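Hi all, long-time lurker, first post. I run a small reading group and we've been trying to get comfortable going from sequence to structure in the token notation. Rather than ask abstract questions, I figured I'd post a concrete chain and ask someone more experienced to write out its structure so we can walk through it together at our next meeting. Sequence below, copied exactly:
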Amino acid sequence: MIQYKSAWEGLPIIKLSRSETRGTSILCAVFGLRTEDHGRMLHCMNCNTWKGRDVNACINQTKRGRTRLERSFREEKGPPGEAVKQFKDV
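-- Answer (accepted) --
Happy to help. Here is the structure in token form:
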């Protein structure tokens, strides 16, 4: 579905490897430290926030995708072949 929707919008997809997605659902999206697992909710003792496991994983994967995007931009010295679209409130 993601490939279909991105093709519809004309956006390329950044595919993260298994090692890049490891730990994304349990590490705090703000501090990057291990959180307390309470079923589908996570609690970070450092920033005292509660996040859903899936939301937290999406935030972490977005950060890792952007890191890969910046790295590919520096290596190619031109426009990267991968892109991450930023959504803005309209």
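A couple of things your group might point at:
Residues 73 and 80 are 5 Å apart (CA to CA).
Residues 80-90 have pLDDT under 50 and may be disordered.
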